[in-house]
Amino acid sequence: MMKSGVCTNKEHALIKLHTLFDGIDEPIYVSDPETYEILFANNEFERLFGKKALGKKCYKILQNLKHPCPFCTNKYIFGKNLGKTYIWEFQNERNRHWYKCVDKTIKWPGGKHVRLEIAIDITKHKRVEETLNGVEREKDIILNSLVEHVIHEDTSMRILWANQAACKSAGLEHEELVGHHCYEIWPKRSTPCSDCPVIKAMKTGQPQEVEKTTSDGRAWFIRGYPVLDVDGEITGAIEVTLEITKRKKMEKALRESEEKYRTQFEEAMDAIFIADAETGMIIDCNRAASELVGRKKSKLIGKNQRTLHLLEEIEGQFSKTFKQHLKEKERQVLETRVITKKGEIKDVAIKANIFELKGKKLIQGIFRDITERKKMEKERKRFRERLSALNKYGRSLNMTESLEDVYDVTLKAMERTLGFEYASILMIQGRRIHLVSQSGYPNNLSFDLPLDGEKGVTVRAARTGIPFLVPDVRKEKAYILGKPNMISELAVPIKMEKEALGVLNVESKKLAAFGEEDTELLEILASHAAIAISNIRKRTQLRKLSNRLANLLKNSTEIIRMKDARQRLKVVAGAIGSFGWRRVVISLRDKNLEGTAIVTAGLAKEEIKLLLERKASAHVWKERLGPKFERFKLGEFYYLPWSDPWIREYVHHVPREAPSDEATTYAGVPSKLLPEEMIDWHPQDMLYAPLRTPEGRIVGILSMDDPVDGRKPTREAITPLDLFLHQAAIVIENGQLIDRLRKARRQLEAYTEQLEQKVEERTRELKKSQEQLLKAQRLAVIGELAGMVGHDLRNPLTSINGAAYYLKKRLSPKIDGKVKEMLDLIERNIVYSNKIINDLLDYSREIRLDLTESNPKSIIREALSLVEIPKNVQVINLTENKPKIKVDVEKIKRAFVNIIKNAIEAMPKGGTLTIESKKSNGNLKFVFSDTGMGMSKKTMKKLWTPLFTRKAKGMGFGLPICKRIIEAHEGSISLESARGKGTAFTATIPTELKIEGGEKVWIKALEFSLSTTMRT
């Protein structure tokens, strides 16, 4: 019974709703808020959405969705909002109509609340609104474009609105201007003007005009127009003001202003077409559009936009892009093609927007010509293809074995990959550039140009190190004709880092035939060629070095076989010359560095004579080998470059302000090198090295000049020559020893003749010195041993060192770890063997002191800087800056370094070394106290004995040498030690020495020359 009652109620409800709403022309429906089923629909709803809507989902019927609408209004009328009316607007996606919806809950039979929605079609209203908004916008645009001041005023002459011209004239923003009386702003009055046309217009209801002159002398034409409401009542006025001080000029300005916006349209760089969105007919276009398609504006207006496009770009009545712009988002950019009147096809990018004007839907298309961009994209693709092919040639270049192969592969790349018909390669030799390979030119073509000349595009590229592009060689003074009718040229340097090796050059019969892409590709090819050339040169240099090292070993053997010292030196000089030096001089020197003789290689007799006349003095060489020139050392050698301003001023006596290319010296032997043979070597550059004996005595000077390759020396290039320095020094020393032996033999023979007369005298002297001889006996034995070891071991050690160096260089590309380890072991043991010899010689040779003034603090600080202090050892330096003492600083430092090293070695687990200085009875005591292991009494007794040591390595000369150095200063050394407590060494030195010593005094001679090219 209840079920039947409900159904009856539902039918009554439906009848009632149909009665109420079927006569309404707006769609009305009722839906279940939970199931979204449509429970009721009036006739208009069924007409719009079908009669089978009942029972269907509202979101399916209305929006064709498979789920509830995201903008469903249930939340606005149910729950806490139950009983409220919700009014909203939306556009239906199915029919594109705008609706104003009124939603409210009503009770459905059964007591359930359902949603009732009335949708009022406001599409026409929206369009009217949009039209009105458009009109308002147009009004603002039009009025703001006027040069006249346009002001809307109420009946009290208070400003309601003003255009931009009025705002600008007042110097105020629009918001600042509104609300003020017009007479407060322009005439700057407190009351209205007496003849104001605005007041008259509002009084009479008719337009009024007047001309006025303001206090600043400007003339104005003012018009007033009454503003009426719908009932004809005056609500205000429009004031239009124009300055007419210079009427003709203002009339012209007015015309320009009126044409301004049309000009912007007409003069736009992009082509602009405006067409009917429904028919596709062109309504308007600008000049750029006419130029784009090559047709007059009159021939385009009225035509369908499809006439602009190719047949394949047209679908039905419109072009493809036209349809896409209508469907897709506005302002999207689409690419297509257009055809000109002459049949030329152009690529364009189109950006379009759709708008309505006076109820008419229009589409504006901005066409940008992208033909050049498309062309560039194709060229870029071609560039990538050419670059890929170029890289293949790069791999081929890396596999070349000779320079000729490099030239051949490079030319093929220039012709086949880069497409250059006329190509050539020029290489730099010395200070000139010459042609080495070419294609497309006559076979007899030859170029050999100076790099400092003004002729040759390739010369400029080589000299500056940057590409040189000549679009028209007829206008280029530097151009040199290689083949007739050439018009453009491109020269790109072949560079390795900053050095130019040569030039890749191409020419064309076309004007401006080469561009940035060609330059870039040619630079890449030049880079590949430079790497290949550099690799070949390095391999060639390696072979040369290998041959030179082999020659070095051969010469070393030959030097050892020869008995005559002068012949040995000749071989040494010749061997050095084979390392790339055209002139070599070995100058023999006495103990004062005065020259005694010379041995040369590569010098003519006249040059030797000139060399002897201009030789430098001993004072010069003492200074050249002194501390001032230390920064110019390359290993054992000294290199003094002419390019250094200090060298030019101090050595060659050339004023600092004189340009290096103009300053010239005339002393020395002139260079044989031609200017074009010099790369970075200068004729006034100096390269020399002292020849030192194992004891450190200088017995000669080696100098070299005129490098074959014209380049300044490098450390790597002259390292092999260090061996010759030692060999030459040994040869000279041996020669001097032989000379002294011969002299001693002659003296002995003369002495024998007078022996009987001097026996008694010598006997007395022998008795007197017997005691001294007994004391020196052991030292003499060690001296003889040191001399024999020094002379007998130096030569084989030198040869072994040279052989190890040769093997390392020869095997370096393929050397394995074990072989390298063995060679390093050989070199380390050679160094250790030399140390043993030096210790023997240092202990046995006569000690000569070079006294200088110093202080305890400075001496200990310098000694500590020469020792590597472990992290677990702390050094406490308590020495003071006083008193001043005269000592041989270098020898004292050596003694203290040995003591410090012994102290550190006595503390393997760490500890503290304390160093103090104390003044006592005219002496200065240095105390070195460590916290190490200490020594036994037995060890302490033997500590000062040569050849006694507790170390695994060493000859036991360290402390004995220290003792000799301290005693040479008339001092003494002692120690105190206890097992497990540590050791304290005390070195005592007099503050005033009585022995004969000397301070090394450097005196600059009044007249001497350091500017000789070959130095003796």
Care to describe what's here?
The protein has 1016 residues and is an alpha+beta fold. It has 29 helices and 36 strands. The strands form eight sheets. It has a six-stranded antiparallel β-sheet with strand order 20-19-18-23-22-21, with helices on both faces. Strand 18 and strand 19 form a beta hairpin. Helix 18 runs antiparallel to helix 23 (722-753), helix 26 (856-865) packs across helix 27 and helix 27 packs antiparallel against helix 29. The protein is elongated and about 170 Å long. The relative contact order is 0.04. The model is unreliable at 1-6 and 996-1016 (pLDDT under 50).
Question: So what's the overall shape?
Answer: elongated
Main sheet: strand order: 20-19-18-23-22-21
**Mean pLDDT figure:** 81
Our Rg estimate from Cα atoms comes to 54 Å
Question: pLDDT under 50 segments (min length 5)?
Answer: 1-6, 996-1016
Largest sheet: 6 strands, antiparallel
Report the total helices: 29
Distance between the termini: 142 Å
Helical content class: 40-55%
How much β-strand is present in the residues?
Answer: 15-25%
User: Helix- and strand-based class?
Assistant: alpha+beta
Task: Please report the total strand number as a whole number.
Answer: 36
